[in-house]
Amino acid sequence: MMLLVVLISMSPGFRSPIQISLHDLLGKWQMQHVYVGGVEVTHQYIPDEKRWVEFNSDFSFVSDGESYGRREGTFSLDEYSGLLSFDLDLGFGEKSFWHVEFDGEKMIWTDLGNPSVDKIKVVLVPAY
Fold first, then answer.
1. Per DSSP, what are the bridge partners of residue 63?
2. Torsion-angle region of residue 15: left (phi > 0), alpha (psi -120 to 50) or beta?
3. Distance from C-alpha of 104 to C-alpha of 116, rounded to nearest angstrom
4. 53-80 exposure pattern, b = at least 16 Cβ within 10 A, e = fewer
C-alpha cells in the first residue's frame, strides 16, 4: 500500500494539498505589486504604494490606503485548495475569489473572477 501512495504522489498529474492555514494570513500585509495579464500595473492600482490589508482571527478584514479608501468585510479560506474569498460590507454582496499561495515571505493572490478578463495577480509582503 505504501508503494502505491509513493507512486501516485510521484506521478506528473498529482497535486499535493496546499495546506495554507488561517495563521499564515493573520496580520497586516502591504500590497507590493499588481499584475494584469502578466504586465505590472502597480503604479495604476497602488500609485502611492500605501495599500494594505489586515486579516483578523474572527475572519474579518480591513483594507486601506490611498486611491481606493477603506474597505471592511469578512473572508473565508479553504485551507486545502488555497481558495480565499472576500465579502465586502458594501450592502450589496460584493464578493471576490482568489487563489492564495506563498513564496517565502510573499503572499500571492491570483484572481479567480471573470474568465474573459486578464488575470490579476497581487503580491503582498508582511507590513512591519
1. 53, 71
2. beta
3. 31
4. bbbeeeeebebebeeeeebebebebeee
pTM: 0.80
- For the chain, give every domain's residue range: 19-126
Task: Select from 85, 114, 116, 117 the least CA-distant residue to 100.
Answer: 85
Q: Tell me if 67 sits within 8 A of 46, measured CB to CB.
A: yes
Q: Which residues pair with residue 20 across a beta bridge?
A: none
Its CATH architecture, for the domain 19-126, is Beta Barrel (2.40)
73-99 residue pLDDT tens: 999 999 999 999 999 865 555 788 999
Nearest to 22 by CA among 63, 61, 59, 74: 59
* Secondary structure of residue 52 in the 3-state scheme: strand
Helix (H, G, I), strand (E, B) or coil at 18: coil
